[in-house]
From TrEMBL:
Name of protein: Alcohol dehydrogenase catalytic domain-containing protein
Keywords: Oxidoreductase
PANTHER family assigned to the protein according to its UniProt record, in alphabetical order: ZINC-TYPE ALCOHOL DEHYDROGENASE-LIKE PROTEIN C1198.01, ZINC-TYPE ALCOHOL DEHYDROGENASE-LIKE PROTEIN C1198.01-RELATED
GO molecular function: oxidoreductase activity
InterPro entries: ADH-like_N (IPR013154), GroES-like_sf (IPR011032)
Leader sequence residues: none
Domain Alcohol dehydrogenase-like N-terminal: 34-116
């Protein structure tokens, strides 16, 4: 890194399959406009959404990904924060869709990241405790905040008699930990591809769903390619009152359900960045019971700060999920190896959550 450049994990042009591998490159450090903040990321995560972008399943344009992590303030701009303050960044602006960190503007996979003044004034830079820069905390805080926020929405609407978590990735497993802590006697059924889950294609799954006591809360934590199918299966087979937290993204437009053709993406998008509270939960009638739909895009800053504090003070929370800790160069090897092989293995282990150590305190 020099006075005018820094290193970043940069996406290469897409291949014939739409995949974008990455490389470590020296890039110009962005010039700041009045009020902008410059950050020095320390530890950052590789998110499931990042993998979707890298695989060509999303068309997000930025050349530098990364929206999970902890950084230090280098230039404070309009934030009023002293240089060296540890912070995390809320990647979703509740009112301005042009700000989506690591999606449509350069993210945290870099030694320097610019946060525009509009995001600064919206309070999206969130100060955190001095010990929050450790890899597990930095990489898991955002998905934990999202899982916890979804749980708060569901518990505000119903008192569940059973829980289904559809998707056994990071968000799904964190959601399971949170629900078991809050309601240890609640029956919980995990649908996914792990050894402790029921496979989505299993012949026994429809019968299992049909026997659940009402009301049921279902958390859909799949990649966006699996959200619609999961919702349709749940809605078709679960009787009585069913509340579905549509955590995973999905394409806009109506989805055919027994309750009718419903624009589920619009319902999910109506709750953005933690606002409003209580969030809208839409109710629909179906032949075999009530259907309640909710979801959210992003969380509030306080949700992120609370997630950071939970991870700092509860070392067992998410302890088995951080599978890899790598530097920038090894992160490029990890990403490119996973894309080339089509598997989720690197250095002899399955990739669950990877944390990238980008730099140290400036």
């Amino acid at each position: 890194m020099s006075a005018t450049t820094h290193r970043a994990l940069v996406r290469r042009p897409a291949d014939d399959l739409g995949r974008t591998t990455v490389e470590v490159a020296e890039v110009p450090t962005p010039r700041l406009e009045a009020g902008d903040v410059l950050l020095a990321p320390v530890n950052v995560g590789i998110c499931g959404t990042d993998w979707q972008i890298l695989r060509g399943l999303r068309d997000d344009p930025t050349h530098v990904l990364g929206h999970e992590g902890v950084a230090y303030v280098v230039e404070s701009g309009a934030s009023g924060l002293p240089e060296g303050t540890p912070v995390t960044v809320n990647p979703t602006h509740p009112e301005d869709p042009s700000f989506l960190l690591g999606h449509n503007l350069p993210g945290l996979w870099a030694e320097r990241t610019r946060i525009p003044v509009a995001a600064v004034r919206a309070g999206l830079i969130v100060p955190v405790a001095a010990d929050a820069a450790q890899p597990r905390v930095a990489a898991l805080a955002e998905p934990l905040a999202s899982a916890r926020y979804g749980m708060r929405i569901a518990r505000h609407a119903v008192r569940p008699a059973a829980l289904v978590i559809w998707g056994d990735g990071i968000v799904g497993r964190l959601a399971g930990e949170l629900w078991r802590t809050e309601l240890p006697d609640l029956p919980c059924h995990l649908v996914g591809h792990g050894d402790d889950a029921t496979d989505p294609s299993a012949a026994v799954l429809p019968q299992l769903l049909s026997r659940l006591p009402s009301p049921v809360v279902a958390v859909i934590a799949t990649p966006r390619t699996g959200t619609q199918e999961a919702l349709q299966e749940l809605e078709r087979h679960v009787p009585g009152t069913l509340l579905v937290d549509v955590h995973g993204g999905l394409e806009p437009g109506p989805i055919q359900l027994t309750a009718g053709d419903i624009d589920v993406a619009a319902i999910r998008a109506a709750n953005c960045g933690g606002a409003p509270w209580p969030p809208p939960v839409r109710e629909f009638a179906r032949p075999h019971g009530r259907l309640l739909l909710c979801g959210h895009r992003g969380v509030a800053g306080e949700d992120l700060r609370h997630a950071v504090d939970l991870l700092r003070t509860q070392p067992d929370l998410g302890s088995g999920l951080l599978s890899h800790q790598v530097g920038l160069e090894e992160a490029a090897d990890l990403v490119n190896s996973v894309l080339a092989s089509g598997t989720r293995r690197f250095a002899g282990r399955r990739v669950l959550k990877a944390a990238i150590q980008v730099g140290g305190r400036p």
